[in-house]
Amino acid sequence: MTGRLKSVKRILMLPALGIALMAATGATLLAQAPATSTLTLKVTGIRNTEGNVRVVLRSDPNTVVQSRASEIDATTMTATAVFEELPQGAYGVVAVHDENKNGKLDFNEMGMPLEGYGHSNNPEKRMGAPGFDETKFTLNQATTSIEIELIYWP
After folding, report:
1. Fewer Cβ close by (within 10 Å): the C or N end of the chain?
2. pTM (2 decimals)?
């Protein structure tokens, strides 16, 4: 092969190598896209069908990722909320049975909750809310389901 023919072949190979390099880089970038998950939350222990259940998903004590109101299933006395396309990581959930649909947990004059509430990991009933570390869980599967049982004070 002459030197000139070798040079032409090298020049013609450059675009093919460039395309192969771009395809490999694109595949690597796609492979590094953050994994996402679907979280299904079932709230149990609801004492009546009045109002709805408000669910708040947090990624740390001060950051609300998503929140929504879910209707109560009168047959099973449960409520379900589904959060889709969540980046995998640590989360905590609080659920409130908002019986009067005013968008908040109501308290009596003594500071006791008048409506049901619960947290992920179902911490024990006590005075004061649990810390985020007690309620957080790791979302690291494509689909995850958790259950929160509501707490009511007499």
Report:
1. C
2. 0.78
